[in-house]
Amino acid sequence: MPRTTTVDCPGCPPLRALTFDALGLIKVIEARAKGGGVPKVVERWGDPDASKCLVAASLNDRKIDPLLAVARKNGVIDILNPLNGELSLSVSDVSNAGVRPEDNAIVGLHLFRRQRSELTSRSCTLLACTTKGNASIKTVDMVDTKVDSGAPKAWNVCALGNISFSEVDGSESYAFFGGKGVEVNMWDLENCTKLWTAKPPPQNSLGIFTPTWFTSATFLSKDDHRKVVAGTNNHQVRLYDVSAQRRPVISFDFRETPIKAIAEDLDGHTIYIGNGSGDLASVDIRTGKLLGCFLGKCSGSIRSIARHPELPVIASCGLDSYLRIWDIETRQLLSSVFLKQHLMKVVFDTNFNEEEVKHDVANMAAHDALSIDEVQSADETENPPTKRKKKSSKEDREGKKKKKSSKEKDGTKKSKSKKRSKKQEHDDDA
Asked: What own/partner pairs with CB < 8 Å and gap ≥ 24 does 94-99 have?
């Protein structure tokens, strides 16, 4: 049985998160101040289908016209509206060149925030990478899909092995790839050229060489593409500095199971790591010092960690089907939601607060307008004359029963009086 710890959940601040699971469902979880900070599932998008399992997702969090891109197991990339889940466009065979999607699934997806093409303001640009290392950048028109946006940029990021992830930096100019049998490497997205490749660590004192197997990675800072943190299948965390050397600057072990998820903090030196046995911890990557583990162990492998860009919270999800919200300062569990399916990824919607305010203001305005109209209509109209209401059928039946019973009583009284009078006459005659 998995080890679990029971802790009190005080609730979390107002936020909105989107989760993606193994049946292709997207669930929207919201926590509002009015509800006491308890997150709840408010919407569910899609139909359960294992062939549409969500393997990658990217949220474009721009203030105007935000978009959500999700890659499915069958090789289709859907472009959705993150506010209502409406499907805007489906793109198929972006990176697969005549290969079945099941054999070459998409493992990395990025939806660019800035326009990389002057085609139209309603176009979006996608970076997709498959297991076999087929990477491509394609621009699609959201209005007219028949418009030719030009041939996509396509290249291969590995000769052998399988890619496990891809990450794009904050400037959206560089991408980072790595996987099983593939050393982490960095590419210039503008020219599709390789800039740097890591060098495997040397053999240990026993002459044992550990095979390369990277499982997750992140840029240490969105503003600096030179420092990258990567996790391996042999429970190692490595910090690479592209401008310094090819081997890791810092490398340390974390517990005894593979590292499955890594997320960076806003301070530029703290990272959050989750492994296959459900351990979640924060580490100061400058020294490799463990700052502490989060209270309340997860009962399954952690597959995704997301840092909220404004609030001091992180979200984690994984194979135990729970979405958990944590306080990064106290490392305490704030709240958890059971979502039934294995969860693959979680992202925060940063536009939630503004939408909530607009929604509340619109509701208040509509309520005020409605009350004013009701007052005006009440003043302008006269009170109609009161009319007697007709008795209902039930009342009629009860009235008839009462009349019948009174008649029966009167009849019995009359019969009794007649008998008495007859008896008196008989006595007189006697």
From this structure: 94/126, 94/128, 94/136, 94/138, 94/152, 95/128, 95/129, 95/130, 95/134, 95/135, 95/136, 95/154, 96/130, 96/134, 97/134, 97/154, 99/132
| Four-CA torsion 13, 216, 109, 111, nearest 10 degrees | 50
Nearest-5° angle of CA 253, CA 258, CA 263? 80
Q: Considering only CA atoms, give the Rg of the chain.
A: 35
Percent of the chain with pLDDT over 70: 75
The Cα–Cα gap between 141 and 124 comes to: 7
Helices (H), 267-313: none
101/73 Cα distance (integer angstroms): 7
Residue with tokens 């049998």: 181
Question: For residue range 240-289, what is the model confidence (pLDDT) as tens digits?
Answer: 999 999 999 999 999 999 999 999 999 999 999 999 999 999 999 999 99
Q: Is 367 helix (H, G, I), strand (E, B) or coil?
A: helix
Residue 370 dihedral angles phi and psi, to the nearest 5°? -65, -40
If residue 371 lies in a helix (H) or strand (E), which one and from where to where? Answer: helix 352-380
